[in-house]
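Hi R.,

As promised on Friday, here is the backbone we talked about, encoded as structure tokens. Could you run it through your design pipeline when you get a chance and send me back a sequence?
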């Protein structure tokens, strides 16, 4: 095959044993799956916090978006060239950042990973074949999930626990907040663990960082 730099990855794919391409499809699927749940959670929590009315529609919570969240979207949701255009998500994520639920670095990581998510959804073949495209990394998957878990734990600790009249100070002090999970994060954790079985990089992380990797519960 022609040694054109743009085609280097195609040649590697044809000559390889398929491990790299399998990893890319697994990472792509995990990025898409985690992001859809993460977006729904982040927007939903802020939407509900500021909602003018909360009801039930088709068995799910339904919010009438409040003026404070609409204002937040106008002020913080706008995108710059090259950024994603999900204004409600950016504004809601910024809300968590302003309350120190996540760091600026984590906020920026999510912005970057949202672009990757869009590329995965629309340009996966280019990611697989074009050597100018950065391959999806295991770290991308773990970073996205880690931020999701961090926001869930912050929300439960700082919002749900402090506004629950049945949750007293003793309960608060005795709760292991770094072990708090939602149903979504527990389910996604299992999906990630099982999807990555046999991945060499994942197995190495498990061996050398056991007890520290965010996926280990």
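Update: got your reply. Pasting your designed sequence below so it's all in one thread:
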């Amino acid at each position: 095959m022609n040694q054109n730099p743009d085609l280097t990855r195609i040649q590697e794919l044809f000559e390889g044993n398929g491990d790299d391409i399998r990893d890319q499809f697994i990472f792509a699927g995990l990025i898409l799956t985690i992001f859809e749940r993460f977006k729904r959670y982040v927007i939903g929590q802020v939407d509900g916090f500021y909602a003018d009315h909360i009801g039930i529609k088709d068995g799910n919570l339904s919010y009438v978006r409040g003026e404070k969240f609409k204002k937040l979207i106008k002020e913080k949701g706008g995108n710059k060239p090259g950024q994603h255009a999900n204004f409600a998500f950016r504004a809601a994520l910024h809300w968590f950042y302003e309350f120190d639920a996540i760091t600026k670095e984590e906020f920026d990581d999510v912005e970057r990973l949202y672009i990757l998510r869009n590329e995965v959804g629309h340009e996966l073949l280019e990611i697989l074949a074009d050597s100018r495209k950065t391959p999806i990394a295991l770290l991308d998957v773990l970073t996205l999930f880690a931020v999701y878990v961090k926001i869930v734990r912050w929300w439960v600790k700082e919002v749900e626990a402090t506004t629950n009249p049945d949750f007293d100070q003793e309960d608060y002090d005795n709760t292991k907040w770094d072990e708090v999970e939602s149903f979504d994060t527990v389910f996604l954790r299992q999906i990630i663990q099982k999807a990555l079985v046999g991945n060499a990089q994942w197995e190495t992380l498990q061996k050398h960082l056991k007890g520290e990797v965010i996926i280990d519960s």
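One thing I noticed while checking it: The longest strand covers residues 53-57.

Thanks again,
M.
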